Amino acid sequence: MHKVRVGVIGCGSIAQKRHLPEYRENVHTEIAGVVDLVQSRADDMASLYQTKSYTDYKELLLDEEVDAISVCLPNYLHASVTIDALNAGKHVLCEKPMATSREEAEAMILTAADNNKTLMIAHNQRFVSSHQKAKKILDSGELGKVYSFKTTFGHSGPENWSIDGRDSWFFNKQEAFIGALGDLGVHKSDLIRYLLGEVDQVGAFIDTSAKTDTKVDDNAICMLKMKSGVIGSLAASWSYTGGSDNSTIIYAENGVLLIENDPEYPLIVNYSNGETVKYQLKKIQSNEAGGQSTTHVIDHFIESLVLNKEPLINGGEGMKSLQVILGALESNEKGAFITL
Predict the structure, then answer these.
(1) Does this model's pTM top 0.85?
(2) Please, are residues 5 and 30 in contact by the beta-carbon 8 Å criterion?
(3) CA 176 to chain centre
(4) CATH fold for domain 128-290+320-339
(5) SS3 letters for 242-264?
(6) What is the distance between the alpha carbons of residues 56 and 104, in angstroms, rounded to a whole number?
(7) Start-to-end Cα distance in the chain
(8) Parallel, antiparallel, or unpaired: how do β-strands 255-259 and 267-271 relate?
(9) Nearest alpha-carbon partner for 224 in 246, 259, 191, 247
(10) In what order do the strands lie in the sheet with 53-54?
């Protein structure tokens, strides 16, 4: 089989730190082209990865030798560009959050089905070693009934890692649609669904308290009730100025799971009988030094294409994780709990 020829649309930080280097490392992949509205940025990446550069993504989509596309664009463009790529006969890996509305997400899923193409959403938390191990422990039933949880993703904000800094689209309400909740919170809604099943109800307080001159949220606290009846909290923030937090704690009958909560051990289980088990696992990926080197998202996407199998996070999964966030926005607006 020939190598999967991939085009990357958008050459910002996520493409430069994740998609492009991880495609280059994948033996089944060839980078067939890069697109960015900023010509010099596209040219720089094309030169670095020895490929073609474009400023108009539609030109790249005309290339019949391109098999798949990574959509690494501001949130408001995810749906339209993904749909164009699928209609051009390309498989698509789209960055999260997959869309800015349920309608957009449904249109993306429908277009993928109509064209018989793969649509995957780039949620990486399911591939983290500690999260996979935690799921095995939970699924085994050894911890008994799950009582509650808290899951958090916070750092000091995208101005510190986005290619355009404080001028980034992340702070532009029209382009971003949502702030910390869409950037970080949707990772955690995907993770908690992976670990504990579907979310039934959501209530939220969402605020802009840390960043000035922007209308996007930078702090969100959500209360979730799972279909199983388990209740817990989800926090997303761009105001953690003294470092980042990417932890999840699950409280159960026979013990407590501490996930990504300790600098040395990615997973610790404190059993109610007094026993403690500490797992030495691969570190979670982060944009800071010493983080995990790969997200596994690219490898999983390519593997699903090579083996012609459905990816773990398809459009339907991406939409369910998005709906938790959309529900949180609605809850904050109405001052009421929202049933999903």
Answers:
(1) yes
(2) yes
(3) 14
(4) Dihydrodipicolinate Reductase; domain 2 (3.30.360)
(5) CCCECCEEEEECCEEEEECCCCC
(6) 22
(7) 43
(8) antiparallel
(9) 191
(10) 53-54, 29-35, 4-9, 68-71, 91-94, 119-121
Q: Which residues contact 297 (CB under 8 A, 6 or more apart)?
A: 18, 22, 93, 120, 122, 123, 124, 127
DSSP 182: I
Per-residue model confidence (pLDDT) at position 2: 84
Q: Is 3.40.50.720 the CATH classification of the domain at 4-124+297-312?
A: yes
User: Which tokens sit at 231?
Assistant: 């209740």
- For the chain, what are the domain ranges? 4-124+297-312, 128-290+320-339
Q: Give the span between the Cα atoms of 99 and 106, in whole angstroms.
A: 9
Bridge partners for 132 per DSSP = none
Q: Give which of 262, 294, 305, 291 is closest to 30, Cα–Cα.
A: 305
- 260 vs 290, higher pLDDT: 260
What are the tens digits of pLDDT across the range 114-171?
Answer: 999 999 999 999 999 999 999 999 999 999 999 999 999 999 999 988 999 999 999 9
Do the beta carbons of residue 216 and residue 179 sit within 8 Å?
A: yes
Paired residues of 146 in beta bridges: 252
Helix, strand or coil for residue 236? strand
Alpha-carbon distance of 48 to 83, in angstroms, equals 28
pLDDT in tens, 181-227: 999 999 999 999 999 999 999 999 999 999 999 999 999 999 999 99
Per-residue pLDDT of 227-271, as tens digits, reads 999 999 999 999 999 889 999 999 999 999 999 999 999 999 999
Q: How is residue 80 annotated by DSSP?
A: H
Q: How far apart are CA 153 and CA 133, in angstroms?
A: 19
Which of 287, 248, 286, 288 shows the shortest CA–CA distance to 268? 248
CA angle (195, 74, 97) in 5-degree steps: 15
Phi-psi region of 260 (alpha: psi -120 to 50; beta: other; left: phi over 0): left
Sole residue written with tokens 């029209």: 174
- Number of other CB atoms surrounding residue 68 within 10 Å: 23
